[in-house]
Design goal:
Blueprint lengths: L1 H13 L4 H24 L8 H34 L4 E3 L4 E3 L1 H26 L5 H10 L1
Antiparallel strand pairs: 1-2
Helix pairs in contact: 1-2, 2-3, 3-4
Length: about 140
Amino acid sequence: MIQYIVGSIICIRYFGTSLETGVALGFIISFPIGFILSKVFAFAAKQSGNTRRELIKFMMVIVISGLITVKGAVLTYDALTYLFGDFKYTLPIVNHTFSPVGTISHFAGMGFSFVFNFFTHKKFTFVETGIFNKIKALKNT
């Protein structure tokens, strides 16, 4: 939700950024919150003692995830605009106009990266993979 609020509502609606820029900024702003929530609640790694390692691996995954989110949103937007056009809808109570296609596209991009994130964090980020011990061993030789 933070990603959507920052990206679509603040960046795109109020500052007039492009869809790609808004989604990317929302993704970047939501990164620290995502790490904390994933570590503490989703993968029960609160007391792992490997926060530094997990943060490094989390950032590696996030780079790919960010690309999936941004490009997924843009490609979905392009496809939906091609199929339905970019129509606007006005919310009657607050008298605010928004693009359902833009909103659906942003959530689609977040959904694509959610699937990628879940499996990579579960199998790579918040488990002991031994990769850092191998790097240390190479460094010490």
